[in-house]
Design goal:
Blueprint (H helix, E strand, L loop, with lengths): L1 E8 L5 E7 L2 E10 L10 E5 L2 E11 L2 E8 L8 E7 L5 E5 L5 H6 L1
Antiparallel strand pairs: 1-2, 1-8, 2-3, 3-4, 4-5, 5-6, 6-7, 7-8
Length: about 110
């Protein structure tokens, strides 16, 4: 997995940080908590320069709970799927891994 953002959790439950990577200009992002009655609604909106660029969802699988963060923009060829993780050093990170082709997965 590759770290594409470093974030700090704020007292109001939001996360602030910088999204960066090869070929990307570093941009400030905020994950703002969302209150909704719908189970399908995101738990956070991802905001940059007062524009919504994604959403984050709390999920659970057999390995435990995690937060899926989906970033999307007309400038991107496809949405970026990443995971919010507590860093062992400090704060939180947004981790991304390139999806592998089906043939690669089947060969393993």
């Amino acid at each position: 997995m590759t770290t594409i953002a470093k974030l700090t959790k704020q007292q109001d439950g939001s996360f602030l940080g910088t999204l960066s990577g090869i070929g990307l200009q570093p941009i400030k992002i905020e994950l703002q908590p969302v209150t909704s009655e719908s189970e399908k609604a995101p738990d956070y909106l991802v905001i940059s320069d007062d524009m919504e660029i994604g959403a984050a969802f709390h999920r659970e699988n057999k390995r435990g709970e995690y937060t899926l963060v989906v970033l999307d923009s007309p400038a991107l060829a496809a949405p970026i799927f990443s995971y919010l993780r507590k860093s062992v050093k400090a704060g939180y990170t947004l981790e991304w891994e390139r999806s592998r082709r089906r043939e690669q997965k089947d060969a393993e």
